[in-house]
Amino acid sequence: MSYTLITANRNYSSWSLRPWLLMKALGIPFSDRIEPFTKPSNYDEFRAFSPTGQVPVLQDGARTVWDSLGITLYLAERHDGVWPADEAARAFAICAVTEMHGGFSALRNDCTMNVGVRVKPRPMRPALLRDVARVREIFEEGLERFGGPWLAGPAFTALDAFFAPVAFRIRTYGLDVGKGQAWVDHVLAHPAMQQWEAEALEEAWREESHEAELAECGEIIADYRRA
Fold first, then answer.
1. pTM > 0.70
2. Where are the beta strands (DSSP E) in the chain?
3. Which residue from 46, 153, 160, 181 puts its CA 20 to 30 A from 84's CA?
4. CA separation for the pair 143, 156 (Å, rounded)
5. How far is CA 110 from CA 68, 119, 184, 221, in A?
6. pLDDT digits (tens, 9 = 90+) for 35-76
7. CA 88 centroid distance within chain
8. Contacts of 88 (CB under 8 A, 6+ apart)
């Protein structure tokens, strides 16, 4: 077994974080390859290794597996621990993962991911308020039903990996997720999340369209990026 996981910039690429963190947390070995965003569209360059022209991509020998959810499902067939062992927790995790994968567009657009900054957000649109309220609901329900400290019980699973980019957004924009903040603090302290953040702060890449999106989200009040 020889996996190569292709991801993009640590500061920006929320979709990349999901399988990277999942594999790190579960101890699944892989080679780490970064293909940074260098312009608003890297489609042509990324098509050299990705059928969609997007990241993340998992290479398993001669086989290419794409999309963060596709990679997760692929890994779940080959490795224990991707989903919770408990049936009720597993059902909750699968539903919440697919909801995250296909929804929360206001949260994505109005609170773009940038690990290294802190932002005073603009007044929130109703759609964003609904998304934040739903995130809070998922966090609080998972912690209450399954006892924590992870969202589906005592072990880290794909559910935590899929909401990990949201944890960075919550911190960046100071979003209120109620009792779900306990999970946010817990996941941000995970060694793999600490590694991702440290690498993000050291990145020299700045991509203009991503930085412009950040400026539209609110006022930058702190920037901890070192380059």
1. yes
2. 3-7, 31-34, 57-60, 63-66, 117-121, 218-223
3. 181
4. 12
5. 21, 11, 19, 17
6. 999 888 999 999 999 999 999 999 999 999 999 999 999 999
7. 24
8. 145, 146
